[in-house]
Inverse folding.
């Protein structure tokens, strides 16, 4: 799937996706002047990847919020509020960027003004890709153009400024950089080969989860493995962090290209191995950014959590088998022999027979 992803993720596809998003958005209602709107659209093309495409803010915050188990590529209101907070976009002293103004932006972007838009598969309480892009446009214009004094002369300049000062620092790193720097290295492959392929240290519950979902893991399965089975989560690695790692390990672009009815939060086996590596580096941060130290962190995860879990299960099974054997031996020891049973029967019969001595 990694190779397929690189084949479809081209500049031509990005340009087509941006054109589709602009068509669905209400940018023509936001900026009435044609020339200024074209300038904004050109500026949006520059920042499109960072805002709503592959390694983007959209995909980072679609992992947040209560609807993470339902919507895959849409940002809920709670995720949108996280976005506003992390990027420091709310300014209660400003004229158009108060918290209430941001709520209005969320509602305005969700508003479907045409019958065609109302019939589309578009959740009413979360932001799809083009709606999130529209929100960024609206916030930039409100912050720098619709203020007194005006800080930017055009919406395009406002978009450039908000990206530089607020949004770019929060754009997540490219997952492909992680894969080429760590996942595809021989040392990491050898570690997976030793613990996963040769020793089969992944517990049966993981294999059962995979078989139950046609060879794929859901977020819930992965979360349960890390939290309840392996006990990996702690102060360094929280449930919220695990969501980010899960989505970073996915091929969301390919999932979006699939029909809506088959879009699920799933990880294929190779993606699940990537998730294990990401969890290892988050749980046991390496002392240096070298592949060797990353391999040590992965090995530590297997030894302290996954293999330790397997050894604990083996010890429990051995103890249970020992108890069953001892119980069986004890029952055999308590069971009387055939000779003893015959003797007791004869004694009982003698007691029941009438006495030969006549009564006095």
């Amino acid at each position: 799937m990694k190779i397929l992803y690189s084949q479809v993720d081209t500049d031509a596809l990005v340009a087509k996706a941006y054109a589709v998003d602009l068509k669905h958005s209400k940018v023509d209602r936001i900026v009435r002047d044609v020339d200024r709107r074209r300038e904004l659209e050109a500026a949006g093309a520059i920042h499109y990847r960072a805002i709503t495409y592959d390694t983007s803010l959209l995909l980072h915050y679609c992992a947040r919020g209560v609807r993470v188990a339902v919507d895959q590529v849409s940002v809920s209101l709670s995720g949108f509020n996280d976005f506003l907070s992390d990027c420091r976009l709310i300014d209660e002293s400003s004229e158009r960027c108060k918290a209430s103004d941001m709520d209005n932006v969320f509602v305005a972007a969700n508003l479907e003004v045409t019958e065609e838009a109302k019939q589309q598969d578009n959740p009413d309480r979360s932001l799809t890709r083009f709606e999130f892009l529209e929100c960024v446009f609206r916030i930039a214009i409100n912050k720098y153009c619709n203020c007194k004094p005006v800080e930017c002369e055009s919406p395009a300049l406002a978009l450039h400024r908000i990206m530089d000062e607020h949004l770019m620092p929060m754009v997540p790193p490219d997952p492909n950089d992680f894969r080429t720097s760590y996942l595809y290295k021989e040392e990491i492959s050898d570690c997976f080969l030793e613990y996963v392929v040769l020793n089969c240290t992944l517990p049966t519950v993981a294999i059962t989860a995979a078989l139950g979902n046609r060879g794929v893991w859901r977020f819930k399965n992965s979360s349960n493995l890390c939290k309840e089975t392996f006990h990996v989560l702690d102060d360094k690695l929280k449930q919220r962090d695990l969501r980010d790692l899960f989505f970073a390990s996915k091929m969301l672009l390919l999932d979006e290209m699939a029909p809506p009815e088959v879009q699920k939060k799933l990880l294929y086996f190779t993606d699940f191995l990537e998730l294990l590596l990401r969890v290892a580096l988050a749980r046991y941060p390496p002392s240096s950014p070298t592949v060797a130290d990353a391999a040590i962190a992965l090995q530590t995860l297997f030894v302290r959590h996954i293999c330790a879990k397997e050894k604990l299960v083996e010890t429990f099974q051995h103890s249970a088998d020992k108890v069953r054997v001892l119980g069986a031996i004890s029952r055999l020891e308590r069971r009387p022999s055939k000779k003893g049973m015959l003797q007791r029967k004869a004694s009982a019969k003698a007691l029941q027979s009438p006495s030969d001595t006549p009564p006095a």
Observations:
- The CA atoms of residues 189 and 348 lie 76 Å apart.
- The chain has a mean pLDDT of 77.
- DSSP finds 19 helices and four strands in the chain.
